[in-house]
Model the fold of this input.
Amino acid sequence: MTVIDRDIQDAPPPTDGLGGDPPPGRPERPVRLSARRRPTDLVLADHLTGVASAASATAVTWVVVARLTDGLGWFPFVVISYLFFVGLFTIVTTDRLGWLTAKSRLATVIVSTGAIVILIPLVWLVGYIFVRGIQALRLSFFVNDLTGVGATDSATAGGGAHAIVGTIEQVALALIITVPLAVSCAVFLNETSSRLRRPVRIFVDAMSGLPSVVAGLFIFAVLIIPFAEKTPLFGYNGFMASLALSMVMMPTITRTVEVVLRLVPSGLREAGLALGASRARVVWSVVLPTARSGLTTAIVLGIARAVGETAPLLFTSFGYDLMNANPFNGPQDSLPLFVFKNIKQPSDAAIDRGFAGALVLMLLVLSLFVIARIIGRDRGTSPSLVARLARSRGAAR
Amino acid sequence: MTTTTNSNHASVDDVDIELIDDPGPASDVRPGLVGGPPPGCASVETRRACAWFGDHLVLENVDLLMPAGQVTALIGPSGCGKSTYLRMLNRMHELVPSASLGGDFLLDGVDIYQSGMRAQEVRLRMGMVFQKPNPFPAMSIRDNVLAGLKLARIKCHDKDGLVEWSLRRAGLWREVRNRLTSPGGALSGGQQQRLCIARALAVQPNVLLMDEPCSALDPTSTRRIEDTIAELRDEVTVIIVTHNMQQAQRVSDQCAFFLAAEHQPGHVVEHGPTTTMFDNPDDPRTLEYVHGRFG
Done:
């Protein structure tokens, strides 16, 4: 990069002498700069201290454990050697650089350890699902349902297309129901000065602690039992499932949106009001657009909360092995139910199929997140790809 | 590196050219609005204006007349109620939950607090510029200028003309004319404040209230805004709160000195033409304050 720039600059002599080579004619001034450094950077000796402390700690632990006990198993070994490591590392660093630096390094080591400890189960979980799921996952999984798949068929027979369709439809319906309600509720909580805000907030908090199976039970008891015989709309179907999911999603989205709206500076509201706008207009045209990326986060969190829920679906959408693309009529499958049903079957093939379903569910959540992020990207602050390309081309010219 | 140097160079050229050719004839044509405030500037008068926060009286019996087409500066130490007074004039005071007020507030002789007068209409006729620049971050520069139209449902047939007119009036046009679609939050502090002035001017208000508009700005930007105020004088009544005595002296025709003591609410000590206030005031406290020996 630098080399190319130099080449270009050499061809026409620089006009202003800024940031380039000295203009021709003037003798080059010998400048001796002091050595560049960043005070926080680690040098080789620091890394060596870490590695050596770890090695000695392991060795000491091994000696102690081997001499004094009959073997403790791997977990106590790791814990004891970690404690030795922290102690040795602190002592050596104090000796080399003083107590102040040692304290800082010690904190860094402990915090990093915490991060790694948290990451291990996450990576393990995702990795396990991936490895188990990928074995039974074929392209046909995205196309076929379980038509004609018997208990003796292999894991790659059939597929989960019906469950994918069901999950997408149910979550989409739940979003359509929830987002307007949750955003209105958050606006009520944050933008009005009503006396009812406190009770409503307590209510929303209480709802976020609602066990999801109760949400499903509620829909089952209030809508499905009394009305299912009269109209198929209130029978077992995807719509009932999305109603139950809405109850789960609503408090999550409401509270997140409320927090996001609170972050919008009050100066912007005042500016809008001072321009002669009504309060509703200010909320709609100023507050919500400003909080746009935060709203997307709220929706993403809501999706994350709802998409993996199994309990509310058990007696609302009920589950089905064949494709039913109409969420308003008849039982419908979804990925969590698909996984649940397959994993509890006494056949290895079905269990593998269940893991494939779990993997697809994770991929689906990931892609929904990405889509939501793209839609909700702040247009004000980060220009679109096209605009950025156009600008960089203009600058290059 | 090369590209940066080149573009810097180009922009310097731009400014030079722009400095030579004055704002063209386009700036004099004020694009018409449908549903906006009535044309011209308006006088503002208050009689026995009082303000409370809760039960705490912060401003007592302010009688002031701010003549149409003139610049009035409100000066005084911090906490003496200048900003509160300003916010009462365009009914922003009532947005504070515990706030209350008393007295008559007349805009061109009409009481703005009478029943049947909508706060939104008052605010539309009296634009406001705040101490801290507050452009809408989710909108482009162009949309920021037009935000008042969108928010107050005003129609304009020549939006591009209005954007240019407002930005020229605010002294920002030649700096942003090539990037009207880039976000308003990306400008520097002084440019943001001028963008806010352009936004307030775009709805063509009768009065412009400015609450310490230059307190966060560098001297160059301050100077630009003062020039802007001077240019606006014929078109809009300007009421400006400032802590900068030189600024008050430079820009204002009328001046009012507010003061609050320990157990005494804010009140107007003296008001009158700026030259009298600065050279030969009646009250010794005014003389001390304007010469920086007090407060």
Observations:
- DSSP finds twelve helices and twelve strands in chain B.
- Confidence is low (pLDDT under 50) at residues 1-26 of chain B.
- The CA atoms of residues 85 and 242 of chain B lie 13 Å apart.
